[in-house]
Design a protein that fits this description.
- By secondary structure, this protein is an alpha/beta fold.
- The chain has 9 helices and 6 strands, in the order E-E-H-H-H-H-E-H-H-E-H-E-H-H-E.
- The protein has a 6-stranded mixed β-sheet with strand order 5-4-1-2-3-6.
- The longest helix has 20 residues, at 38-57.
- The chain is globular.
Length: 243
């Protein structure tokens, strides 16, 4: 039996990976790999998020979804009517992200540049996966995880998309398929691919969901005030923009 690693990784995205109809308002795809030491995740991340939910909702069945919070959809409609409550809510959530120790590997694909540079561009999600795993490999090998099993949890999207992503994941991690000029030895790690529905109420997936869009907005509007990004920036490792 393979020894279990000391880290857990949650992956989420912002934007869509399609190249046919690119949204001019958000022509990018962002993938964030949020890497937690399991002890920090158990002892700090999960209980802090639970306390936050009980404080504002009285129960822990709420799934924190960035787009629903931003657009004040149910169950976040109460944020529309009370400005002070909304500010306290966002401040508390920001403090949680700031205080929890974890590293973020952000990969940003500019789809317009990708289309203009390559005749047959790769799937942006597959590119983000490859680049993210390269940086993740560095973190985990540095922290003594060689030969240990590390689980990566991706958010469920759809059967076809999930199967396609798993195949690409296996090509990279199991077959050690190389790409471009770098020769990354993924064989030193044992990566486990997992898909999880957002409804499972995973603290890690919810935290990952909150990190992706601020990175995208910072790229598109660098001079705009972006408090969420200011917090996330301190946790970034190996940020890559492609092409």
């Amino acid at each position: 039996m393979t020894e279990k690693g000391d880290y857990i990784v949650y992956v989420d995205e912002s934007g869509d990976h399609g190249l046919k109809n690119i949204d001019n308002n958000y022509p990018i795809f962002v993938l964030t790999f949020c890497c937690f030491k399991i002890s920090d995740y158990i002892e700090q991340a999960v209980p802090e998020l639970q306390r936050f939910k009980f404080k504002y909702f009285g129960h822990d069945q709420i799934v924190l979804h960035e787009i629903d919070i931003r657009k004040t959809k149910e169950p976040f409609k109460f944020l529309r009517t009370n400005r002070e409550l909304r500010e306290n809510f966002m401040s508390d959530l920001s403090k949680i992200i700031e205080n929890i120790p974890f590293q973020i590997v952000p990969i940003l694909i500019d789809k317009r540049k990708l289309m203009s540079k390559y005749n047959k561009p790769f799937n942006p999600y597959h590119l983000g996966l490859r680049f993210g795993l390269e940086k993740l490999n560095q973190i985990l090998l540095y922290n003594g995880q060689e030969g240990k099993e590390i689980s990566l949890i991706f958010e469920k999207r759809g059967n076809n998309e999930d199967k396609d992503l798993e195949l690409e994941f296996l090509r990279i991690c199991t077959e050690n398929q190389q790409f471009g000029y770098k020769n990354i030895n993924f064989g030193k790690m044992v990566y486990k691919f997992l898909i999880s529905d957002k409804k499972t109420n995973s603290s890690g997936l919810q935290l990952a969901d909150l990190t992706a869009r601020p990175i995208g907005l910072k790229y598109l509007k660098p001079s705009q005030l972006n408090r969420a990004y200011d917090i996330i920036e301190k946790k970034k490792f190996g940020y890559k923009v492609f092409p």
